[in-house]
Amino acid sequence: MSIITKKSEDFLIKYLNNASPTGHESSGQKLWLEYLKPYIDEWKVDNYGTAYGIINPDAEYRVVIEGHADEISWFVHYISDDGFITVIRNGGSDHLIAPSKRVNIHTKKGVVKGLFGWPAIHTRRGSDSKLTPTLENIFIDVGAKDKEEVLKMGIHVGCVVTFDDEMMMLNNQYYVGRALDNRMGGFCVAEVARLLKKNKKKLPFGLYIVNAVQEEVGLRGAEMITETIKPHVAIVTDVTHDTHTPLLNKKKLGDVKTGRGPSVTYAPAVHNKLLDLIIDTAEKKKIPFQREASSRRTGTDTDAFAYSNGGVPAALISLPLRYMHTTVEMAHKDDVENVIKLIYETILRIKKNHNFKYF
Known about the structure:
The protein is an alpha+beta fold. The chain has two domains: 6-71 and 178-347, Aminopeptidase (3-Layer(aba) Sandwich); 73-163, Elongation Factor Tu (Ef-tu), domain 3 (Beta Barrel), CATH 2.40.30.40. 27% of the residues lie in helices and 26% in strands. The protein has nine helices and 17 strands. It has helices spanning 6-17, 26-36, 147-152, 180-198, 220-229, 250-253, 272-284, 301-306, 333-347; strands spanning 42-45, 51-55, 62-68, 73-79, 84-90, 102-107, 110-117, 139-141, 160-163, 168-170, 174-177, 206-212, 233-241, 263-266, 290-293, 314-321, 329-332. The strands form three sheets. The protein has an eight-stranded mixed beta sheet, with helices on both faces.
């Protein structure tokens, strides 16, 4: 039986379709908080937009469960005299997928529609036949005759650009869309709060349900919020690569597949005792899971929490994802449910003043 309700999924669809580019996450954070509020005692937003809800805000022992809210995007960087727009990355945007994609340019006058143009195949002959997209040659067309008309639309250098793609269901098994990385994480931690409320669970500690900003540009939101909350424990959820699709090398990237459950990561930043608790919980509750390893850093907000405040026991639970940082990111419904279950069941096993000391 699914633990995700119709109301929850309606929120998820609305949340995934909303634009929440790095540095401009406010509209997404408002949606997320409105969904979360019935299940928490208190909520806050920091100066840069990281939002969090709190259960038992007066408790001294503080546990964080966290996802990140921001999506990759582009910045308008240059407008040519004949009205074409050049961009730079805001996060890890992929220039190879840009040509022929429709975009939304976010201005103070509202959203302006545009598209990434590309020379027709008929015109790419001779040396031009090997023309490939690069960050230097991709461009946006908004149908303007010149720079002046572009400016009149409200577009200027610094405007943020997101792809215009809405989510879909594939084969009744996969959520598909842009920015599942990592609004799925924000959804999962919010669902944990909902289940705690629904099942009338009383926690012996304060639980901080965090949706951090600016992960895509260096874990910045997590860096800020961990100094504010000063948690004693942090469980982070993010996405990881399904390495079973064509063109990927499992020996290099690890062996993870969608539909087989969340993945837990072994890494220097991951606290062994907290990881053991998560794995033991998965085994006891018969929640399927996979394993992977990171040689230096996880590249997720886990690192920011772990190396803050003198060291915070932190662990990472990842959602397997196909085609990361594209407009067709794919996550299996069963994996989403099992990420929620694993965080929920682990939280219920953390005790007041839980001892995660090294030895």
